[in-house]
Amino acid sequence: MAPISATFLLFFSTASISFSLILSATIIEDLNNLQPPPDFNTTLTNNCLHNPSLRYCNATPFNLPEIFKSTIVASHLCNESKNPNCVESFPKIDLRSRPKIAPLYLSFNFFWKYCPLTILTIDLSNNSLKGSFPSDIFHCSQIQALDLSHNDLSEDVPIQNFSLLTNLTFLNLSYNHFSESKISDSQFFKRFNSSSLLHSGLLPDHRKFRIKAILLLLGFPILIILTVVCLCWLCFWRPDFLPRVLQSKHKFTPSMLKAATNGFSKKNLVNKNEGVGIYKGLLRDGTEVRIEMYWEQVSRNNRRKFIEECKVLVELCHKNLVQVLGWCDNRRLRSIIIEWVDETNIEMWLSRSAPPWKQRVKVLMGILEGMCYLHEEWPEVGYDLKTSSILLYEDQEPLISRFKVGDQNSSSKKIYRFGVLMLEMITNRRPWEEFEGGEAGFVEWIRMYYLDNLENVIDERMKKTGHVFDQAAASIELGLKCMDLSNGRQPSLDQIFNNVSRIHNTCMASASPNLKRLHGHRGEGH
Ligand SMILES: *[C@@H]1O[C@H](CO)[C@@H](O)[C@H](O)[C@H]1NC(C)=O
Ligand SMILES: *[C@@H]1O[C@H](CO)[C@@H](O)[C@H](O)[C@H]1NC(C)=O
Ligand SMILES: *[C@@H]1O[C@H](CO)[C@@H](O)[C@H](O)[C@H]1NC(C)=O
Ligand SMILES: *[C@@H]1O[C@H](CO)[C@@H](O)[C@H](O)[C@H]1NC(C)=O
Ligand SMILES: *[C@@H]1O[C@H](CO)[C@@H](O)[C@H](O)[C@H]1NC(C)=O
Ligand SMILES: *[C@@H]1O[C@H](CO)[C@@H](O)[C@H](O)[C@H]1NC(C)=O
Ligand SMILES: *[C@@H]1O[C@H](CO)[C@@H](O)[C@H](O)[C@H]1NC(C)=O
């Protein structure tokens, strides 16, 4: 240190002697008024000879006014900083808590450019300094301590430049507003730890971090709970919003039905009986459905039975059976969801459109196909063969639409019912409305007339050509056989199927030129 002090002394002794009397004036006045002494050039040259490390020695020729001004600032600043003996040494710039003059001194670039080599400590803390990092300080590359804490400095800190300050051991940048740039310089962190950067903006704020951690700690479980609640809602109320793989195929919830029917609106109500409401609904996937709602309360046992029945019904799959899509089972309501078929039943069809013979046979064929399917695959499923409960869709394809699981009816009863249906379709008469004694009266009437007066028995509106008479007569005979419950006279379902399909084939072929050949089989049924 000795040579540096000596140089410093040398630097000031020559410069200060000439203006020591005037230094009481303010620094700005001094800078404006004072001129370098005539021998200033020589003084500097001599100084550089003694100590070439002095900062102005590098820049020759000397900028005499600027170097001189820097000596004026240095002398003021040394005094302001209460250095013990400014003539001999200037070890410390202490402008702590001097917000009025600290910015002024910082603004003297020429001073920092020639920063005196003796300065080892710079303290500019607690001055509300604004703006970016005062980079001029890096000119004082020999300093060992730098305190810029408690200011309002902002923007980036030039971390790289700290490598210039090789002797710096104390640094405090705490309590500023620097922008949080990632300090990747590990060299910097080997020298200084986080206690130099408290609340400087350079490190992630611990309080902010704690708030984030708390939010995360609270938020994560809340998120999970919300997700679970959401999933539960979906599962129990609206499973139709779940991905298809997660949906249970046939189970519907009351909320789904409510959504499908606009909240069970009157507009969607198709029919209402005691305890049963039939709604037209639109599912989320665009399927139109018929929703049969049962509001009545039932015992737990009956509910279980209901579900078991539904499980069977959804398995039924045939072109002549209405497709049961699923069910809803709830304490308040039970419901069966069935594909929507526009409401035309055979009864309406017969009376409104007086269909030709060929179409009637086709419909009978379809009904038989459905019956055979149920007979073979689902013998425990019963069905209703009333003309009012068999539906028709576009292509005159019949649909059996009412089922009963666990049906006690024998197949003999089913064949009897088919017989009635068949005769009704040929005659377009309603046994229970038009005959005394209902079906028995109906049968009696047919028996009485069909042999001699066939024309009066079959539907009068139907166009009757020769082969239609023959086939209708054969069909009436078959229908009567079906209704004959005396021992062993009733044909089996297979026999009925064969007979009707033969008639059906003949009908289909009759449109073709082979008419004559087929006429050879005339009277087969007799
Ligand atoms: C140095 O400071 C003292 C008071 O601390 C003052 O009396 C003196 O005039 C100052 N000298 C200069 C050169 O500013
Ligand atoms: C200072 O002195 C040197 C020689 O020592 C000379 O070359 C230079 O021109 C002088 N500068 C001024 C500004 O007079
Ligand atoms: C900062 O400076 C103000 C005056 O400007 C002073 O009251 C306060 O005590 C100082 N704080 C610190 C920590 O030095
Ligand atoms: C750091 O200190 C050493 C010895 O005290 C000195 O030799 C060296 O020049 C100093 N470094 C700077 C950049 O001033
Ligand atoms: C700080 O470092 C940058 C390069 O990293 C350099 O361009 C700049 O001049 C340096 N500033 C000072 C004051 O040394
Ligand atoms: C930080 O470094 C200083 C010395 O520079 C040391 O006194 C202090 O204990 C260190 N703090 C931590 C948290 O490492
Ligand atoms: C920097 O200053 C702050 C506030 O004055 C203080 O809490 C902290 O300990 C200081 N850091 C160091 C390394 O001295």
Explain what the structure shows:
This is Protein kinase domain-containing protein. The chain has helices at about 1-20, 25-35, 40-50, 65-80, 100-105, 110-115, 185-190, 205-235, 255-260, 300-315, 345-355, 355-375, 410-425, 430-435, 440-450, 455, 465-480, 495-510, 515-520; strands at about 90-95, 120-125, 145, 155, 170, 175-180, 270-275, 275-280, 290-295, 325-330, 335-340, 380-385, 390-395, 395-400, 405. The protein is an alpha/beta fold. It has four domains: about 5-205, Alpha-Beta Horseshoe (Leucine-rich repeat, LRR (right-handed beta-alpha superhelix)); about 205-235; about 250-340, Phosphorylase Kinase, domain 1, CATH 3.30.200; about 345-520, Orthogonal Bundle (Transferase(Phosphotransferase), domain 1). The strands form five sheets. The chain has a five-stranded antiparallel beta sheet with strand order 7-8-9-11-10, with helices on both faces. The protein has a four-stranded parallel beta sheet with strand order 1-2-3-5. The structure holds 2-acetamido-2-deoxy-beta-D-glucopyranose (NAG) (7 copies). The site of one 2-acetamido-2-deoxy-beta-D-glucopyranose (NAG) has 6 residues, from loops.
